[in-house]
């Protein structure tokens, strides 16, 4: 992929210290497939590609959860961040279009009458979700009748709460729920999905030239097959999908 040469303004806005500080959410096991000795996966690869296009060194700034990444936007500790694009995060962060999508759905217990993702949002159902997750934020905005309970902790801790307490469904990313399903005999994944989490590149507000350049970079990476090549190289086919290209009318807005 041949990226558009960044202007001085773009370099200054994206790497004001001369180094691109890229925030990485370690909890997304699809985007960070290995943590040690250094993070590997599509998210770090994208950060490296951006740094190379800018012609600056890369520093990965590591966070355990996406909510920590978003909260740190006010602290000037990162320049770009690879996290889900959700309205609650847009107060302090501008986002490019998505570079990958991950389907989000539900895990239900053995014998549950809930068969599809659309069955879950009904009166009387209690739904567990990881606090601060992109799909959890989506449910906060869109779930209308079921009771949504946002739980702190890791994916395993949230699953343990779901398994040990009275919940009708556990919301999560489909690949992660497939792993959790193995731990709960007879449990099932609902058919369909309630949303596809849009993983994008974010940067702090007030950097219009940098946002435009990053937006074009992400679209070119999708169009030229770079994102798909990372999905294949890490064996993530069927788990991650390249996000659709933006239409010409969307890009002109």
Write the layout of secondary structure elements.
Elements: H1 8-14, E1 20-25, H2 42-54, E2 58-63, H3 66-71, E3 80-84, E4 93-95, E5 100-108, E6 126-130, H4 134-142, E7 147-151, H5 155-164, E8 169-173, H6 174-181, E9 188-189, E10 195-204, H7 208-223, H8 226-233, E11 241-242, H9 248-251
Parallel strand pairs: 1-2, 1-3, 6-7, 6-8
Antiparallel strand pairs: 3-10, 4-10, 5-8, 5-9, 5-10, 5-11
Verbal overview:
With 253 residues, this protein is of the alpha/beta class. The protein has two domains: 8-100 and 196-251, D-Maltodextrin-Binding Protein, domain 2, CATH 3.40.190; 103-195, 3-Layer(aba) Sandwich (D-Maltodextrin-Binding Protein, domain 2), CATH 3.40.190. It is 32% helix and 23% strand. It has helices at 8-14, 42-54, 66-71, 134-142, 155-164, 174-181, 208-223, 226-233, 248-251; strands at 20-25, 58-63, 80-84, 93-95, 100-108, 126-130, 147-151, 169-173, 188-189, 195-204, 241-242. Strands 1, 2, 3, 4, 5, 6, 7, 8, 9, 10 and 11 form an eleven-stranded mixed β-sheet that branches. Helix 1 (8-14) packs across helix 7. The protein is elongated. The mean pLDDT is 93. Residues 19-234 form the Solute-binding protein family 3/N-terminal domain.
């Amino acid at each position: 992929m041949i990226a558009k040469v960044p202007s001085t303004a773009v370099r200054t806005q994206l790497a004001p210290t001369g180094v691109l500080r890229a925030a990485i959410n370690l909890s997304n096991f699809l985007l960070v497939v290995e943590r040690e000795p250094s993070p590997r996966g599509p998210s770090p690869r994208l950060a490296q590609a951006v740094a190379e296009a800018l012609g600056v060194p890369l520093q990965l700034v590591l966070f355990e959860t996406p909510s920590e990444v978003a909260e740190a936007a006010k602290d000037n500790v990162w320049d770009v961040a690879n996290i889900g694009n959700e309205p609650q995060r847009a107060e302090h962060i501008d986002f490019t279009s998505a570079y990958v999508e991950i389907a989000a759905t539900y895990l239900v217990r053995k014998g549950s009458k809930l068969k599809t993702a659309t069955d879950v949002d009904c009166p009387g159902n209690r739904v567990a979700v990881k606090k601060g997750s992109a799909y959890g934020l989506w449910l906060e905005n869109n779930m209308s009748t079921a009771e949504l309970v946002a739980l702190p902790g890791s994916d395993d801790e949230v699953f343990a709460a779901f398994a040990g307490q009275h919940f009708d469904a556990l919301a999560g990313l489909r690949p992660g729920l497939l792993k959790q399903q193995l731990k709960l005999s007879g449990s099932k994944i609902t058919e369909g999905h309630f949303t596809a989490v849009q993983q994008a590149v974010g940067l702090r507000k007030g950097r219009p030239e940098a946002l435009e350049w990053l937006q074009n970079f992400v679209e070119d990476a999708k169009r030229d097959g770079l994102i798909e090549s990372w999905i294949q190289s890490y064996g993530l086919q069927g788990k991650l999908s390249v996000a659709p290209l933006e239409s010409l009318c969307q890009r002109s807005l």
